[in-house]
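User: Design a sequence. Structure:
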């Protein structure tokens, strides 16, 4: 089954009771049993729910995995992965990391004796320099948030496999439409499904997808024991969003390319970060492991002025100033004071997250309107 068909039919079946084409919303916490332990596959909705089960099959199908898990948020999904670890274990992670992931690692799990190494992975060979007998997980974002750095998943997977280490990939920015990490050797794929998978800025959810049954069983146990699951209504909305993922992503990519080139040619813009440019670091890697370059763009103005950046995001009209990304509507953000505020300024600036940086999530509106909005805001 090709990807565009998977978004609509992957892992799905018509409702057995009445033949409903869309999975019904099973808005129930519990299920009748004929005898203790005698049920139809569902007993309590923290453990299993038919609507969530349909969604989890869809997640698995999109990423060419065997097992999917749905969580109450992307961070809840990452939290479940961290619970695979023990005190004394070490994690090698991207230094240009989403602020929420960094906060979870440094302010929650570091307290429990897990050591984190945050390194630049643009040269993936560097990962091996930090591997030791305690290393249990390599955690990769690619493209990264917000600098759009590209990391070679195949090379990271080769290092992980050589040392019997798990490789997890945050695939939120690329989505399975553009990139499928399990096919490249990753063990775990994570999505903040809040973003592109849902696509309409109306759900908060996370996803994990794996191929290995033993790993899946461990994660299912954590999901059930910790209880950070999503409800049936959100599961239904996510299934609906996924059905248009392929057509939305096509437009995100088209508009993203147009906006990136407009900004790159603007006399008041200092630098534009977008993997589609030949001069972008690891452009060749992006071209090899992604089918297109997405709708996420970051840029700085000439003079690198905090005040100029704030004026631009405040003047934008179609690009809404808001947290998050990946919806049908275009959003703008100021990472230093929004998504990455939890990272110390000194650490942020080492990776390029300076006070003048603006991040755009380019939506699916008319390309000309988006460019005109940027023109009037930048001046």
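Assistant: Done.
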């Amino acid at each position: 089954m090709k990807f565009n068909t998977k978004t609509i039919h992957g892992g799905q079946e018509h409702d057995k009771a009445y033949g409903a084409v869309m999975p019904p919303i099973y808005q129930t916490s519990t299920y009748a049993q004929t005898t203790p332990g005698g049920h139809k596959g569902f007993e309590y909705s923290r453990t299993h729910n038919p609507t969530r089960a349909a969604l989890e099959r869809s997640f698995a199908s999109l990423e060419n995995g065997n097992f999917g898990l749905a969580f109450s948020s992307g961070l809840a999904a990452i939290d479940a992965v961290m619970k695979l670890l023990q005190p004394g274990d070490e994690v090698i992670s991207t230094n240009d990391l989403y602020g929420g992931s960094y906060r979870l690692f440094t302010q929650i799990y570091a307290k429990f004796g897990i050591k984190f190494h945050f390194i630049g992975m643009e040269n993936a060979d560097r990962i091996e320099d930090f591997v030791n007998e305690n290393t249990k997980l390599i955690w990769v974002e690619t493209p990264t948030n917000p600098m759009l750095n590209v990391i070679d998943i195949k090379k990271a997977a080769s290092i992980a496999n050589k040392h019997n280490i798990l490789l997890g990939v945050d695939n939120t920015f690329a989505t399975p439409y553009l990139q499928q990490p399990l096919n490249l050797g990753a063990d775990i794929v994570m999505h903040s499904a809040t973003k592109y998978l849902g696509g309409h800025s109306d759900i908060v959810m996370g996803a994990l997808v794996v191929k290995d049954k033993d790993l899946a069983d461990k994660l299912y146990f954590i999901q059930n024991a910790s209880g950070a699951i999503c409800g049936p209504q959100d599961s239904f909305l996510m299934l609906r969003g996924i059905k248009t993922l392929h057509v939305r992503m096509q437009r995100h990519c088209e508009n993203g390319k147009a906006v990136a080139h407009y900004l790159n040619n603007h006399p008041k813009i200092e630098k534009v970060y977008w993997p589609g440019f030949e001069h972008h670091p690891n452009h060749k890697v992006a071209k090899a492991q992604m089918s297109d370059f997405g709708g996420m763009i970051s840029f700085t103005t000439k003079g690198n002025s905090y005040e100029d950046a704030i004026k631009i995001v405040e003047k934008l009209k179609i690009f809404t100033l808001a947290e998050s990304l990946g919806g049908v509507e275009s959003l703008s953000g100021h990472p230093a004071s929004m998504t990455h505020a939890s990272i110390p300024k000194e650490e942020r600036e080492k990776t390029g997250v300076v006070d003048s940086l603006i991040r755009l999530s380019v939506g699916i509106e008319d390309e000309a309107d988006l460019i005109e909005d940027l023109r009037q805001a930048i001046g």
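The first strand starts at residue 67 and ends at 71. The two ends are 48 Å apart (CA to CA).
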